[in-house]
Amino acid sequence: MRALVIGSGAREHAIVHGLLADPSVTEVAAAPGNPGIAAQARCLPLADVTDADAVVGTAREFAPDLVIVGPEAPLVAGVADALREAGFAVFGPSREAAQLEGSKAFAKDVMAAADVPTARSYVATSEAEVREALDATGAPYVVKDDGLAAGKGVVVTESIDAAVDHALACFAAGGSVVVEEFLDGPEVSIFCVTDGDVIVPLAPSQDFKRIGDGDEGPNTGGMGAYSPLPWAPEGLVDEVVRRIAQPTIDEMRRRGTPFAGVLYVGLALTSAGPRVIEFNARFGDPETQVVLARLQAPLGTLLQAAAEGRLAEQPPLVWRDDFAVTVVVASEGYPRSPRTGDEISGVPEAADDRYVLHAGTARDGDGTLVSAGGRVLSAVGVGPDLPAARAAAYAVVDGIALRGSQHRTDIAKAAAEGQVIVS
């Protein structure tokens, strides 16, 4: 199988890494890829991943048996539709199905129709409606940009002024907002691979969205993650498939917009049980880095089966017993105004228990590796328990030199110390 991955982040690097471990995959290319991917696979030029014609042209050049669309923006832009119309097998939902991520209001409507447990919510398009909704939900206030915001469109705050300011900023950008009640309890991410009918869930993970230790500071695209979750209730994955993922997939099919790809279910394990925080229409970043680090089943075979409607034929997934932790190394100024163009050194050679996945990196005119984005690298550590996996990941981070870089020091720390409580 020849596989083409669309995207350039650490998620796409993790997917390439996983595909190369599949004996059935003979060649992997990425468009546009990044310097880390280029060290393992072929990178093809692609100026804009949301340009459907350009993506199709790149696919025709490489002639893959499977195209995997990594980021959300091209999915919402309809790139998967264009690829399918051109005759390619594609892992990723259609434009209409991707609205589960592209519009939070749409996702809430689907959840209501499918009787999926989630937070009480209100769609607002004016300051008056926002204030009325905030009064109804009470503090902590949760305000979400209705559209795509790269993981940074959500504000959770005790300040009603901050909540209103965020809503007004979303309105100024031409969008609406969703105001919803705050959900207590630890968060969990579960990826559900689906062909539009059958669902194959992957192992749960947990990510860390805020920039600073102790969950302080603004939201980011994600500063780290770990898997599995030693504190997760027994039977959680089965419950999520039964109560959340399968009803959602069935409702999408009923609407005539079947969802085939990966449904990312972001949950809060509340005192009343699992509740959906959000759906995404693609693998999450940085959770993909740790989930795929543990997957022993052939990734290419799994994703091709989903793309071709053959998931029911697939054998059960096989997982490593090890734990995996990833720590994101971000540039100075991230998430508000990240520095770029700084030299990166100290990236180690890959080993079985630790390696680096590239995100915001590039080569300058001299071939030097430099920063080219907010989240620059993901350091992945694997070990027989969480402390060992954390130690492996942080050993990699400690060896990386990047001017002004920042990272969290507490990724998976509470779980490793048995401090995560599910009420």
From TrEMBL:
- Domain ATP-grasp as annotated: residue spans: 108-308
- Name the Enzyme Commission number(s) assigned to this protein: 6.3.4.13
Output the SMART domains linked to this UniProt entry. Answer: GARS_A, GARS_C
Q: Which cofactor does it need?
A: Mg(2+); Mn(2+)
SUPFAM superfamilies in the record, alphabetically? Glutathione synthetase ATP-binding domain-like, PreATP-grasp domain, Rudiment single hybrid motif
* This protein's pathway: Purine metabolism; IMP biosynthesis via de novo pathway; N(1)-(5-phospho-D-ribosyl)glycinamide from 5-phospho-alpha-D-ribose 1-diphosphate: step 2/2
Pfam families this protein is in? GARS_A, GARS_C, GARS_N
Catalytic activity, reaction form: 5-phospho-beta-D-ribosylamine + glycine + ATP = N(1)-(5-phospho-beta-D-ribosyl)glycinamide + ADP + phosphate + H(+)
A GO term for molecular function: metal ion binding
The superkingdom listed in its UniProt entry is Bacteria
- Tagged with keyword Magnesium: no
PROSITE patterns this protein is in?
A: ATP_GRASP, GARS
Q: Establish whether keyword Nucleotide-binding is in the entry.
A: yes
Q: Which PANTHER family match?
A: PHOSPHORIBOSYLAMINE--GLYCINE LIGASE (PTHR43472), PHOSPHORIBOSYLAMINE--GLYCINE LIGASE, CHLOROPLASTIC (PTHR43472:SF1)
Q: Which family does it belong to?
A: Belongs to the GARS family.
| UniProt name for this protein | Phosphoribosylamine--glycine ligase
Q: Which organism is it from?
A: Flexivirga aerilata
Gene name linked to the record: purD
